[in-house]
Amino acid sequence: MISMTGFGYAEGEVEGTLISVEIKSLNTRYLDMLVSLPPTLSMLEGRVRDELRPLFIRGRVDVTIRSRDVEGQLSVRIDQNAASHWKNALESLADFLGSDEKVDLTMIVGQEGVLHNEKPRNIEKNWNLLQRLLSQAAEQVLTMRRREGNELLRDIKAQLLSIERSLKLISGRSPELIHSIEENLRRRFLEVLGNDVDEQRVLLETASWIAKMNINEEIVRLDFHLAAFREELAGEGAMGRKLDFLTQEMGREMNTIGSKSPDTVLSREVVNMKDALEKVKEQLRNVE
Fold this sequence. Notes:
Largest sheet: 4 strands, mixed
Strand content: 5-15%
Structural class: alpha+beta
Strand order of the largest sheet: 1-2-4-3
Shape: elongated
Oligomer: single chain
């Protein structure tokens, strides 16, 4: 079992450029990958997605890639024409708004086209490093997801044991419940009709009530769903969606058992099963 929550980080240097990769994954129903790259590496986004997509099946995956030039390796050119145009534009805007604020250097240097990094970049060398960093960070994420998945698995198995204990008690009490229904119906007929009671009618009414109150089919189906759930847990790969479907089916059987049973002991066990099932559902929200 694999969780959808994880974090990984890696960094390295190539030709005086420090590149870092941060990957965070969270739980969502489908795969949603968001990639953030600096402008100098933006042309590599497609490669980044192709590199990571086979590793993740479900979840939101945030990939943040940063790069900066190591001190002493930076070469910057100033576009004086662009700086002058930005200064004039900002001063005109201040006049239009009636503002006394002066246009200073910090307002200008951050504008597009004023500063240019003239350092030549070998995009393939950058990609070779980035590819290794993606692999390292992704492996950290997957390791964390597997470790958390094992914790989820332990808790889910504990809740399944609770459900199975309650189901066993319900299954053992079911024949006693049927016998109790038969006796109660016969006693009521005798109370109302006395010696004029029609035995055939009693048998038909009893059979009808037993058919309505019999929970044997629901017990069998719920037991089957539990077995299928455990079988899926023992498998490999993404299992969250199938397990989620099985919990829905289990919930339907529990609800039917609860609605059919007039017995307080059985009703209490149904409540216990539903409580454990809700805990399973909560854990499954973070399972890939």
